[in-house]
Predict the 3D structure of the following.
Amino acid sequence: MDKQLQEILNEAEVKVKQIKDKQTLIQVSALFLGKNGALSGLMKNLKNLSNEEKRVLGEQLNTLRDSLNKLFKDKENEIDDAILNEKLSKEKVDVTIPVTPSPYGTMHPIEILKKDLIDYFIERGFELKDGTDIETDYYCFEALNVPKEHPAREMQDTFYIDNETVLRTHTSAMQVRTMESQQPPIKMISTGNAYRIDEVDATHSPIFGQLEILVVDKNVTLADLIGTLEGVVKYLLGEKTELRVRPSYFPFTEPSIEADATCPKCGGKGCALCKETGYIELLGAGMVHPRVLEMSGIDSNIYKGFAAGIGLDRLAMIKYGVSDLRDLYENDINLLKQFK
Amino acid sequence: MIVSYKWLADFVNLENVTPQEVADKFINIGFEVEDMKDLSKGMERVKVGRIVKLTRHPNADKLQICTIDLGGGDTVQILTAATNVFEGALVPAALDGADLPNGVKIKTTNMRGEESQGMLCSGEELCIDNSVYPNALVDGIMILDESAKPGQQIAEFLGLDDVVYDLKVLANRPDCQSVMGLAKELSVALDRKFIAPKTEFKQEKIDLPIKIEVETENCPLYLGCIVKNVKLAPSPLWIQRRLKLSGITPHNNIVDITNLVLLEMGQPLHAFDYDKIANHKIIVRAAYENEELTCLDDQDYILSSDITVIADTDKALGLAGIKGGKEYSISNDTQNILIESAIFDRVNIRRSSRKLGLRTDASARYEREIQPISTLNGLNRALTLISSLNCGTISSDIVQVGELKDEKRKVSLPLSDIKRTLGIEIPTENIMYILNRLDIETTLIGDAIDCYVPSIRADIERSADLIEEVIRFYGFNHITPTHCEQTSSIAGGMNTMLQLQRNCVSYMLATGAHQVRTYGFCAPTTLDKLLIQENSELRNYVKITNPLSFDYSTMRTQMVSSLLEVIKLNENRKNKDTQIFEIGKIFKDIRDNKDNIPCEYNVLSYMTAQNVDFFNVKSITEMLASKFGINFTYKPSKIEYMHPNICADICLGNKKIGCIGKIHPRVLKNFDIKHDCYYFEINLNDLPAKKTKKAKPLPKFPSSHRDLALVVDENVLVGGMIETIKKTVGDMLENIELFDIYQGEQVPNGYKSVAFNLTFRKQDATLTQEEVNEAINKILVRLESTYQAKIRA
């Protein structure tokens, strides 16, 4: 570079070094890069030179301008950093000071269980149907092969609204409503409250949650029912849980079964929770009675179905270690808070 | 149904089968064991002993030293303080290691220099009373009669060497409401022979006439038999013990035999005093209206014509199928009896029993239906016992009215149906074997088995019923679980209501509220506590005809009371800052659907007893609206249970879908709540389903902002002003926000200043200043004419 130009750059470097604030930086930068600054003075002289000289000096001037620009830009960044650091050093927080959080609310344990079950079945391609708590005698009983005066009506003490209207004793009422409204394949679950005349005590409640499962198709078997139940029981109570299937009787299924799970507390050895039996009663299920299929307009020669009803309250008690059912309906915040 | 191990062993050989194995078998074939009790528990180390020598204790005045012979040459020395012992007495001796029924553990001890190798027992210590053994409760040691053998287990001597099961018999198996029915099932489960009781009795021609007339269709079959010269006496101990197992008090041999047959075979029988039957004529008929009858329970019953009675030509003798009358029952001077074995209509018995509030062992069995063949079997069994126990002379003439049907029912079982139902193959010979063991005759024809089912198994009507029988005994453990691999797929998924509810729950949890679950029952007086007016639609509640209690006698029409109860409970327990929500149902007796059932609504309700104000709560409903993608409007409203000036209807368009406000202090007082509460509810059924949204293009032209501060009367509603502004400007107004409300020095008394921030935009061009000014002017003119609003200086 031309000696004169090098001197300009050296001069600028010396001046910039001394700058402490932005205002001065702008002033100094104007001395070199401004309209009347050193650089523009030299640029003006270019026009008096030969083409060859113009080219050589022009290049050198461009290099000088780039160097000056960089010099001032670097200084500007340096000053900005200093300002920011100064600001940051003054902003202090004692991160150890305790705060009053606004915590998340909690779901009711029975609702958690219901949600988990719904998720499980939805993921397996089931659809969810809603039913009503108040049902006709027809859907709650007659269409499920329980005509009036049937001895099985004794099994479920029913709240009546009038002769033809009841508080549903089971979510099974949704079976027939579903089958009447669509032909197979059906893979349905329904949850909600069911009602039976039971005095409130540590293990009974006149209102309780239930989950209904119904599958109707050409190739549905009892083995499918048992496999499905085994899966859901392991999902709810753990991989080691085993299912015990016993014959039972429900007028709307044939064969009917009752399924017990090995006690999650003692693993089947016997404890207070399972009354020393090693098993806890979980649910009733079975192959949909051919008469129920027929009454719903489904050809029982072509289609088979399975159905199951799971009581949620008792399961919630077992799963969440609540020993008195009344606690689940009392809604003491201190209990609810625990189910985060 | 109560059965005992030894009783079952009368009908099936239980050699090498433990009581626990019996219980397990019953569970496996569908009879739940509700209770299992070993009667000899605690008596394992208690034996019959004879006191062969009795001497005074040298160092203790009150003790005697007994040398006890335990048979087989064994003797022990036991000390006792009891004074009723004597040389030669047979007594229960608890030996070293005994763990008695009352919890006392026995060990060999030394008492003042003399060894005692056990303890002589009182009845109390063995936990038995006089009903198990006469004089069990004497003061002192229980002295046994001479039939006891030294060395014999005391439980065996007392008839307590037995295990009692309480089995749950489900409604489809009336045939198993009997020891014999259950023993039959057990014999198939164990694959052992069923030993039917013998029918064997002597009959004689008897000169006692009897005529039976059935005037009602509620008695399809009636069998009667006369027994002459009955010798009434206490029944043998084994009968008495078996009756007591089921809680039946023994009376005399005849009555006890009828009760035993009821338990053993499930057939109710009744014995009438023959000589008291007027004209020796039995009439089965409908009772007369208001006919009176005193039954064996000493209760007077007033009857009606839907109840069936057994009568003579004068009056009713007993309630058919339920209970006998007192007057015609067997007494000490009874000479001759008529034994009745009949069938009564199950529905008629059920209704009568309900109506009279009288449920008996007999009615319980009739309610579930009894088959004709059981009537004959039951009578024969009773006559066999009468004969073998020498209770009287049996007439050779059994009177029968009605048909004794005992036909086998043909049911076809297609073999393919088994695989299709169960998902496994079962060898045909196994199927036939199981069915045959159940007395079902089988013929294999092609790919189906023709089954001939005995009449007693009325529950087997179609192939599904037969398949259940097969798998019950073949065992569910043979089924390999599968997972619906063969079924077709459907769309599946949640429905809109569940989506909506889940959105609500997730947002409500974020506010810090806890989800509760309350009963949908409600006392009608709760509405009074909520100050609800007489003509309010909330009084259109659904009544339960048979409620548990007054508090649970109607279905709730609102949820506010449920949440108030929860707040109260938590306040009583000193829980602070209770903030709760519930998604539950309310019910109204509006029947506008095809099923004619009351309407139900899913409602989200929220209540807080925190130190908050109306706007904190409104911000929750606003956030919900935003989550649902809709806009709520709030209209000042009067709701009885809310503060008169802090209450609004929440509306969607013009439809009211909920309410929000502060609970009326008087209502809080009625619920005994001290803290202020805010409440809102939203009827979820009225919310629109969230639709899949299509993206709108982003605006191409800039917006323009203006602030507007206005002074209006303090009673002017801000919501109204906003609506007016929106209507005045139309589409050009993109957004309006309230940013300040001020009342104070710079505003005249009774007025307030309201400031808005307005955003204008056109979709197709850049707005000019003139257009915006024009819009502002229009707004000012409209607000002035509507609300006398003045621009704030």
